[in-house]
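We emphasize that the prediction below concerns an isolated chain of 257 residues; any contacts that depend on oligomerization or on bound cofactors are therefore not represented. The input was used exactly as deposited, without trimming of termini.
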Amino acid sequence: MDKQETLALLRAVASHEIAPEQAMLTLKQAPFADIDYAKIDLHRGLRQGVPEVIYGAGKTAEQIIGIVQAMQANGQNRILITRISPEKADALSAVCAFQYHAAGQIGLIGGMPEPGGHGSIVIATGGTSDQPVAEEAAFTAEALGNRVIRLYDVGVSGLHRLLAHTDEIMSASVIIAVAGMEGALASVVGGLADCPVIAVPTSIGYGAAFGGVSALLSMLNSCASGVSVVNIDNGFGAGYQASQINHIGGTNENTLS
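Result of the prediction step, given as a token string:
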């Protein structure tokens, strides 16, 4: 049960649509489900607004299926799964309706919600090689109920490509800048936009890029105001944070539930 469902339940009690005792039974559900190899946080949606998301890497297909079934048994209908390989996605698709996005190795059970929030989330990449991380961010943001605009391969080695999209950049609610190499894209975007910019360093680059560390340090040292940085290749974290920003001060009934 998430915040919106809990609020709806309390309003139903206030309007005498359901008895307080019935509401108490609903709220007394266990705070987590223990299935031996996983303890599923059933109250995360109530605390944070978004229920638990499954991190697929390191888990077997059978474990993922078991976690999904436990979530569904406890009322979660829309379930986001990140870092899931095509083989594990195939196994999951055999037992439930699973929408898999191979480019970002991410998928969703329950179908995409209608977009909400204050505006659009723009996702820009320095190069085509950064797209897998960008797609993880984009799919996450869409699954959390946001409108996403993709601007791919607009890096600083050809700055005119980015400047051709100033309308999208200047009208965005949040921007996610995804780049490897020296990670300069975040500073350039931050100097053009009046909204928060979330920088995502990627592990793309030659030897001295140190698997994304060079881009990470460059982004952390950005001279543009309003730039925050997530970890290397963390598209999910960027998409999640961007959704939070895009929904500040409002309600979103279309997130995972």
